[in-house]
Amino acid sequence: MPENTKPAPLAIVSLIYCKCPRCRTGRVFPYSPLNPVKFSKTYDYCPHCKLRFEHETGFFWSAMYISYVFSAGIIIAFGAVAINLDWTFTRIFSIIIPGILILTPFLYRYSRMIVLYLLHPLRHFDRKYL
Ligand SMILES: [Zn+2]
After folding, report:
1. Domain limits at 117?
2. What average pLDDT does the segment 104-124 reach?
3. Residue range 9-34, pLDDT digits in tens
4. 23: CA distance to ligand 1 center in Å?
5. CA 11 to chain centre
6. What is the Å distance from ligand 1's center to 63 Cα?
7. Residue 53 maps to a domain
8. Phi, psi torsion values for 123, nearest 5 degrees
9. How many domains does the chain divide into?
10. CA of residue 34 to ligand 1 center, whole Å
């Protein structure tokens, strides 16, 4: 084994850092999630191993459902806490709506990353990377 070869990080670590599901080195998103205009830009191919991320048109549409579950979970959890603290609905919504808007880039990205790691066809053809 060559000295400069490092083992690939765990899949969950690569997912958290938004790395390619095959090589776990290349980035999936070229811009920071804090960039309000370009946070949604996704590379077409992995810059390191050239894996095509959106292998068919509409592949990432299922990420919309995951993002919905994230948002609903946050709203339900926060709403339950806020109701137990006897906050008014105006106060609850004035916190939840900006909070979800601020979290949107992260919800968007992690929804896509979960779809990439769970549904990408490389899972069926390339077992050595899993
Ligand atoms: Zn890659």
Report:
1. 11-129
2. 86
3. 888 999 999 999 988 999 999 999 99
4. 4
5. 13
6. 20
7. yes
8. -60, -30
9. 1
10. 23
CA distances from 49 to 29, 46, 99 (A): 15, 6, 36
**Residue 61 half-sphere exposure toward CB, CA atoms < 13 A:** 4
Confidence (pTM): 0.81
Q: Give a yes or no: residue 3 inside a domain.
A: no
Spacing, Cα 45 to ligand 1 middle (Å): 8
Ligand 1 centroid–CA 76 distance in Å is 36
Q: Note whether residue 105 is domain-resident.
A: yes
> How many angstroms does the Cα of residue 52 sit away from the middle of ligand 1?
9
Taking the C-alpha atoms of residue 19 and residue 71, their distance in angstroms, rounded to an integer, is 23
Residue at 5 is within a domain: no
Q: Tell how far the Cα of 61 is from the centroid of ligand 1, in angstroms.
A: 21
Q: What is the pLDDT of residue 120?
A: 79
